[in-house]
Amino acid sequence: MHEMAIAEGILGIALKTMDENAATRVARVNLLVGEMAGVECESLRFCFAALTKGTAADGAALSIERVPLIGRCGACGREQPIERYSFLCPSCRSGALEIISGRELKVESLEVD
Ligand SMILES: [Zn+2]
Hints:
Layout: H1 2-20, E1 26-34, H2 41-52, E2 61-67, E3 70-73, E4 79-81, E5 97-101, E6 105-112
Parallel strand pairs: 1-2
Antiparallel strand pairs: 1-6, 3-4, 3-5
Helix pairs in contact: 1-2
This protein binds zinc ion.
Residues 73, 75-76, 78, 89, 91-92, 94 line the site of zinc ion.
């Protein structure tokens, strides 16, 4: 399962950060997830909760911030949200959109005790 692999990655980062800070518990994980990252958030929460049981991250809050899909038009230079996966510039109808955000999947910050 895709989300399980992601949850494992998050847990690995969390435990490493905890060690580096001489902490004993992971309290919160703040994640940035792009609209187009291909992650099912509910599934990720479920996997994370299951995976952290019995670890130092047991009970840690998983906060997920969705990042909208933003494209920059190569023809007119405008940056705007891409809606309904329409990859044409809403302003000039050019197809030269470059995605500048919305595909990220990263741990933005962690709180450890
Ligand atoms: Zn344009």
